Amino acid sequence: MKSWFGRKSAPAARPLLHRAYAGAAGVGEWPRNYEAQAREAYLGNPVAQRAVRLVAESVAWAPVYATDGAAGAAASAKALKLATPALLDAAASQLLLHGNAFVQILLDADAAPAELFALRPERVSVEADAGGWPAAYVYRAGSVKARLPARDALGRPGLVHIKSMHPLDDHYGLGCLGAAAGAVAIHNEATRWNKALLDNAARPSGALTLDVGDGALAAEQYDRLRDELELHFAGTANAGRPLLLEGGLKWQAMSLTPADMDFAGMKAAAAREIALAFGVPPMLLGLPGDSTYANYREANRALWRLTVLPLADKLLGGIAAALGAWWPGLGLALDVDQVTALAEDRERLWAQVTAADFLSREEKREMLGFSTT
Question: Mind listing the pLDDT tens digit for each residue in 332-342?
Fold first, then answer.
């Protein structure tokens, strides 16, 4: 392409990849980078940790079955051994928190999959080719750097990249930590403030005031009063000690009380927003609400239908698609018939199909997921 001055203009360079959680700048008073958010949420917040563990453990310990396809029963049995509960637990947690799950495929002496290992997502970066497609994955752990090709010479993947949808990124998924960061910061700060208030004998901070008619305190009086307050009335060891005021001094509270701040309501609202970000009904986390048996049962069913099953389908589908390079036609899925929380849905479906007199026996078996023979 020629420019107005008769020279060829350089081709437009491809924009740099936008790495999720790459910036360390804070928004408000809470962090944006992944490591700091993980420490605040998963390591330091009971609501966020329980929400992630509830979803990830449900995915990991649910029964999984494999479809043979053209691979055969032996390949299906080996694939089930590779998709261990520990692997699914780690991958599901990483997908929730970071938005990306990187599963490395380790081969045996016969160049067949022997083990699946979940890599820490914040250590993996995508290396794109000239067209923008992933050519390799670079894993960095301190000073150690390893380059994992996206596919080998036979076109088989060496690493499975499973990601959530990100509207502004072509190569990386979007986790739930960013959406929950504000609520986590509020919940954690409320806990710290409550602890500090209890350390101060559950009394909010205030000030000593002196009437104008009584004059001002001398420097020696001011220093003595300050030292006595710090020595005899500050800290947990002095909690509850009465304060004797003299010389026209009065105690004036300067901060809001827990009732004025609606402390319990604010903390409960933040906890519900955290649960919402991770797709867990607040009732299942023990948060205030209509805690009846019927509501709890519906909440448990909603957790499986709206959060656990879609996440499990994404993980198992990605793993099965990658292993399909060795075992064509392989499929992995959760066996919903063995999930206790969904037993009522299955029972209702069976009753409806059984009552359909216009269907043949073979058609009924096919609708229920069984073979027609």
Answer: 999 888 888 88
Length of the chain, in residues = 373
d(CA 203, CA 194): 11
Q: Which of 78, 106, 68, 103 is nearest to 89 (CA)?
A: 103
Q: How far apart are CA 340 and CA 304, in angstroms?
A: 10
Residue 250: what pLDDT? 64
Q: Are 340 and 92 in contact (CB under 8 A)?
A: no
Distance in angstroms (rounded) separating the CA atoms of residues 329 and 243: 79
Alpha-carbon distance 9 to 91, whole Å?
A: 46
Q: Say which amino acid occupies 98.
A: H
Instruction: Give the global pTM.
Output: 0.77
C-beta atoms surrounding 193 within 10 Å: 15
- Say yes or no to pLDDT of 361 above 90: no
Please check the confidence at residue 2 and state whether its pLDDT lies above 50: no
When pLDDT is averaged across residues 292-298 and rounded to a whole number, the result is: 76
The amino acid that residue 125 corresponds to is: S
Spatial contact of 354 and 364, defined as CB atoms under 8 Å apart: yes
Contact 219, 75 (CB under 8 A): no
